[in-house]
Amino acid sequence: MASVVQLTQPGTGKYEQLLKRCSALEPIPTAVVHPCEEASLSGAVEAARQGLIVPILVGPRSKITSTAESAGIDLRNIQIVDVPHSHAAAVRAVELLREGKAELLMKGSLHTDELMAAVVSRDGGLRTGRRISHAFVMDVPTYHKVLIVTDGAINIAPTLEDKVDICQNAIDLAVSLGREWPKVAILAAVETVTSKMPATIDAAALCKMAERGQITGALLEGPLAFDNAINRQAAKTKGIVSDIAGDPDILLAPDLEAGNILAKQLSFLANADSAGLVLGARVPIILTSRADSVRSRIASCAVAKLAAHSRRRKG
Question: I need a surface site. Which of 68, 212, 234, 273 has the fewest CB within 10 A?
Answer without folding.
Answer: 212
